[in-house]
Design brief:
With 175 residues, this protein is of the alpha/beta class. It contains 5 helices and 7 strands; from the N terminus they run βαββαβαβααββ. The longest helix is centred in the last third of the chain and has 21 residues. The protein is globular.
């Protein structure tokens, strides 16, 4: 049985948004966070369409239930998406002991390259301003990736290769 919340994270360029769209298509997830103003399309891909939490975003990373529930109005598990959840893993576990944390990992160089190809600083949603510039983006991709790997190792998470992506892995913390 799925929990009320899954804190879902991947670094910019990890292609985690596309994977989230597949996950949410199962019918078990609340998709009411999807809205036209949250859609970002690049090329043939509808890369972004869900609510994102984080610095400078529509919803910050405040872990209060009211903030986490704000973009949703339906039923089902809420996939809470943020690049910044790695900075909050301990607080998430403390405040939401039944929640899962799902990680999407991809090599940091490939992440940065894909993020640039997908639009980089011209991406209209979500807001990437807090990363400041390319050097800041590279630094944060590296730091967020390290925090995810450290968390996965600490909790002995098993990584699974995403079936249709040879260089992307997911791991899920389940209490």
């Amino acid at each position: 049985m799925l929990p009320e919340y899954i804190f879902y994270t991947g670094v910019p360029g990890s292609r985690w948004s596309g994977i989230a769209q597949d996950i949410k298509s199962s019918g078990d997830y609340d998709c009411t966070d999807r809205a036209d103003h949250r859609v970002y399309t690049h090329g043939e891909f509808n890369g972004h369409c869900d609510a994102y939490f984080g610095t400078g975003m529509e919803f910050d990373c405040n872990l209060d239930k009211s903030n986490l529930d704000a973009p949703f109005s339906g039923q089902g598990t809420r996939l809470l998406m943020s690049h910044e959840w790695p900075y909050y893993f301990n607080q998430i576990i403390e405040r939401y002991p039944d929640a899962w944390i799902q990680l999407v990992y991809r090599d940091t160089f490939r992440c940065f390259d894909w993020w640039k190809k997908a639009g980089g600083w011209n991406i209209t949603y979500p807001n990437y301003d807090w990363y400041v510039d390319d050097a800041g983006m590279r630094r944060e991709i590296k730091e967020q990736s390290k925090l995810m790997i450290d968390f996965a190792n600490k909790h002995k998470l098993l990584w699974s290769k995403v079936p249709y992506q040879s260089d992307i892995y997911t791991g899920t913390y389940r209490p």
